[in-house]
Amino acid sequence: MRAGRRDHGDEWWRHAVVYEIYIRSFADGNGDGLGDLAGIRARLTYLRALGVDAIWITPFYRSPMADHGYDVADPCDVDPLFGDLAEFDAMLAEAHDLGLKVLCDVIPNHSSSEHPAFRAALAAGPGSPERDRYLFRDGRGPGGSEPPNNWVSVFGGPAWTRVGAGGADHGTGDGTGQWYLHLFAPEQPDWNWRNPQVWDEYDRVLRFWLDRGVDGFRVDVAHGLLKEPTLADHPGGIPLTPTAMFREVAEPGAWDQDEVHAVFQHWRSVLDEYERADGRPRVLAGETWVADPRRLANYVRPDELHLAFSFGLLTSPWSAPAWKEAIAAGLGAMESVGAPTTWALANHDVVRPVTRYGGGPVGARRARAALLVALALPGTLFLYQGDELGLPQVDVPPAERRDPMWERSGHTSPGRDGCRVPLPWSGDRSPFGFSGGATEPWLPQPADWASLTAAGQVDDPLSTLVLIRGALAIRAALPAFAGGHLRSRPGTPTECLAFDRTASPGPPVGSGPPEASGNEVGVGGSPTVTCLLSMAVDDLVVTVPGRLILASEPVAYDGRSLVLPPDTAVWIAAEDPAG
Ligand code: NOJ
After folding, report:
1. E strands, 305-389, where?
2. C-alpha of residue 72 to centroid of ligand 1, in Å
């Protein structure tokens, strides 16, 4: 156990900080310019010192890498680019020794077109049981030469690819001319979740990794597994850009079908079986791009997923009313089903917060403040690698772009490479300690990242890394952050977000009993912590009696009156009546 960390009990996932490792870009252990399991293993102590509870590792399974591993050809083996099963086992054991939980990605919406089941489907031909494991259909129009419906791929272009008869036959010689559905790239055919063999395949996958000891899974595209059975046209034609994330209103037949919940009820029973055997929770966290909070809550009913990603904050503009609404909606919906709310400001698919919030010093300042707020909210936070360093989005030159979205969008979307640039660990030039080898990192790192390396920040008291590390330590230590209680503070200016966290919902602000013990960060055991964030353009003066425990920027505070500069967040502990 870590000294000073509170034991959150069995249900750690209800108030955890989960660090997302985008494996290609985290740390390269073998010098080939690509992150890998050995690189993760070597940096586990960094993550422990940062203070996260768990890591989620993006796919490292055997894959042709058409979508950087989200196209899985063998989900029960490690791709040689990332290591092997022995390396995985060693990494997992070391993570556990350090007190870190490990979540892996499971990708149930689609496989790779190189998956043996898809190759068998192509070879077997129309009407075969093999084809029924995927979504093959005849085309429309003369000779079936038009796609079966008007659906589009999330990456751009049609969601259908034709095999044979002028289409890609993937080397099978198939001349039947049927089409198959792929909500993402053509190399990612969608499974047919109405076929029981698909359920069996995923039972096998889940059990394979659970038997190796993982703590659970992040479920890719959890809201997409089932499609409306007739695969009817979307009503509005093809309205979406490749960057649109919430798609269920415009594409009602493709996302968030009620039938999907049976899959997760079944998966939950599989994970619960493991938990019952040894008392260690196994956790399912769904990637659920569902905008309606009530529909989102359906995924985390007591017998389904443990966590559903809620993207309300991530998609909110820099405005206090918008943030208040997103927070209230997120908390309200999850409360109704007894599940914790999750928060995320970023992941490997979206523009990094520093850039989203305006870029440059303003963006950096806002991103620091935003993280302090997200860390003060009840529930579980998913922290994307590099956000603890305040990394901005990189404008990767067109010739270096590797995301399939760039090509498939006809070069209208730059794709997601800009948030996936390999991390700067140390040194003053690329590869910044990311890689020890002669091979260049797989995406170019900007020269000015010399000022953002982890090694350069670790001893700088004003750095983003030290701020976030401190925030994590305080969050883990203070009773106020342990419970699920949040009270918004009335009477603060419109452009100020203000709420209290308390250990229990009972006593009013500042009147709770004194806590007996201190903690490792020396901030006392105050029962209430107030979090404030100013999104105003001028300084705000706010009255909050207490003690300043953390601020994203320097502030003036006399224990009562706080001058809060723009784009700044603070945590203030209510003064203990006992002193
Ligand atoms: C969501 C993942 O986060 C993204 O990176 C991937 O491209 C799609 N799912 C398809 O698997």
Report:
1. 307-308, 342-344, 380-384
2. 12
